[in-house]
Every structure is written in structure tokens, then in C-alpha cells.
Amino acid sequence: MKRLIRVGVGILALSAVGGCGFSAHAKKSAVVGKHPTSAAKSGKRNTRRLAANSAVRVKTGQLQVLAYYATGVHTSLSALWKYPKAISVFSPFWYSVNSIGGLKSQVVPSVLAAVRRHQIAVEPLVNDATGVQAFLKTYPTRVNAARNIADMVKGGGYQGVDIDFEPPNNALAPELTDFMIDLRDRLPRQDVITMAVVPNSGGGYDFKTLNPEVTQFVLMSYDEHSQGTAPGPVAALPWVENILARTERFVPAKKIILGIPLYGYAWPVGSTNAATIPVSAVTAAMNSHAVTNRSDMESRASYSVNGTPYIAWWETLAGMKDKIQLAQKDKLEGVALWRLGYQNDRVMQILMKHIGPQR
């Protein structure tokens, strides 16, 4: 759930893109229009909707765990199937909005069916296929996008939706706010609207107006250093604490979900061209040279691959635990993981131990 220039789901081979973004073009995509309105199909939709909404989101007073998922490389969900109660919400990147407000879909029916068998709420993520929020620029395309997304949520029987548009600047802040209000009006109040927000947006979000319309905000508290920057921590604990404190000045803590990266980056020495390294794919060379930075709570390693020297930084399990405890201390709504497929069993065990089962 990062900026498009930081998309990535691979290791080393995808060095031009980053850990948590999305490809603007989906394979085998289909444009989503209006859904059937016959009584029979409407009844089926309502049945699916009731089944989806019967998934227990989270116990009272407990952090919820929202987990993102994307197709591509590193898509194994084996750890989730072993620990299905570790997460409360499954948010797959299956939809993108094009320049005229249409939706491109890449739903994986087998994954959706498996997640629902475990009674996990499904709130698909919708991102901006244009990268510049082109559909927000005119009233007709904004309305078209809001209508198509609302129809998708209703027709798919989803419990809600995650909007991840990530404004490149504040030029379209009023239009983004108008879009979110329109989307809220088109969905029942029990449907969750989650909005992913980048830190230090420079005024890209009108939180005062958005707060009543948006159920919860995912603070994208990662990529402090990433593709295009010098090597450094992905989400140093002091940096996360600071951007969270700033966000809490504008958004009630109970509406904030704290992002946690399940990855790191490796940079060739002297380069800003970083490759994404999932925590499940940290190599023996990285581990053998790893040193934990106690203030940042991340691991750092200098090592070589085929004679090429690298510097890598990645999230540690201890750092993940500290971020969970930060969310608990500040009484946030929950934590969000980018992303499933990057995790291993130990990540899921930390969730079960320090947050507890979600159902």
C-alpha cells in the first residue's frame, strides 16, 4: 500500500520498485460496471453480504489486525492458514480505479473462498491505476468511481473497502474529500470505509472533514527509507512514534491503524536502487552479518552477493512487537501488515501472543 513508484512484491529482481505499492496494471483485469439488479441475483448478493458481515471483526478492547494481500511474487498464505485467527480483516489488492472512474478487477475466487471459510472479514483495497488521481479531477468521473466502488462492495458481499489513493500533493485535497463523502453516502453505515494515508502529506488530507465520513485510517508508517533513497531504516521506531504523534493531532487515536512492514530493502553500495526483501526471504548472508540497531529496532547488514557489496535494513520481530505495544499504549484501533506473503510463522505467532486471537 505504498506509492506506485514503490510497488514491489519481489526480491532483488524487482529492484526498480518497492515493498508495499501496487502495480497500476493488473493481469487478466476486467472493468467493473453496474451489477445485476434482478431479484434472484439481488437475493444472492444479500446472502453473501450477510455471510461476510457475520465474520467477527475483533474482540472489544482488542487491537484489530488488518492484513494486506497482493497477487504476484511471494503470495503464499500458508502461515495464514496455520494461524487464521491472527488477523481480523483480509484486505486484498484486487481493484484499481481508471481515469474515468471505472474499476479494474483481479479477484482470485479461490483465495476469497478460503478466507471466508475461516470467517475472516474481507475489505478489498482499491488503488489509483492512474498514479495521479485523474478520476478525481471532474465531477462525473468522481461520481462514477464512487458508484462503482459502492456497487462492488455490495455486489461482492464485502464488509467494507480500503481506499488507497495516496495523493502526490495537496492539489486535489477538496476533490478527494468530496469523493469520500459521496462514497460514504452510497454505502450503509455498518460498512467499513478504511482510508490509507501517507505521513507528511503536506496537506493532502482534510482530516477535519474526513473524520466523520471515514471509519478508520491506516497510517502508512513505513518506507522511511526505500527505493530511491540512501540506505536506512524502513520504519525506525522513533520515526514511527513521531509521525503517529503528529497524526493523532488530527485524527482520534481510536480511528488510527498503525502500519507495520513485513519487509526490508537491500541497496547495492553507492546506489539508491533498492530491492524489496520480505522477512520470510532474509538470506543466510544477511543474517550472518546482521546487527540490530537498538534505537531503531531494525536489523542492518553489510554483505556481498557474487562480488557486489550490499547494505540491507529490515524489520525485526522485536521491532514488530514494539510497534504493537505502541498501538496498545496509544489505544489505537489496530495494526496493519504489509503484506501477507511476506510473513513467516514467527510473525503470526507474535500476533497471537501479543494481541491474541481475533475470533
List keywords for this structure.
5-stranded antiparallel β-sheet, 359 residues, 8-stranded parallel β-barrel, TIM Barrel, 10 helices, single chain, alpha/beta
User: If you average the pLDDT, what whole number results?
Assistant: 88
CATH architecture term = Alpha-Beta Barrel
Structural class: alpha/beta
Biggest beta-sheet profile:
8 strands, parallel, barrel
Q: In DSSP terms, counting alpha (H) and pi (I) runs of 4 or more, how many helices?
A: 10
Description:
This protein has 359 residues and is α/β, with parallel strands linked by helices. The protein has a single domain (4-354), classed as Alpha-Beta Barrel (TIM Barrel). It contains ten helices and 16 strands. The protein has helices at 39-53, 78-82, 109-117, 139-156, 173-186, 207-210, 237-247, 284-288, 317-329, 345-354; strands at residues 30-32, 64-69, 89-97, 103-105, 121-122, 125-128, 160-164, 192-197, 216-219, 256-261, 263-268, 275-278, 290-293, 298-305, 308-315, 334-340. A hairpin with a 4-residue loop joins strand 13 and strand 14.
How would you summarize what this structure contains?
By secondary structure, the chain is of the alpha/beta class. It is 29% helix and 24% strand.
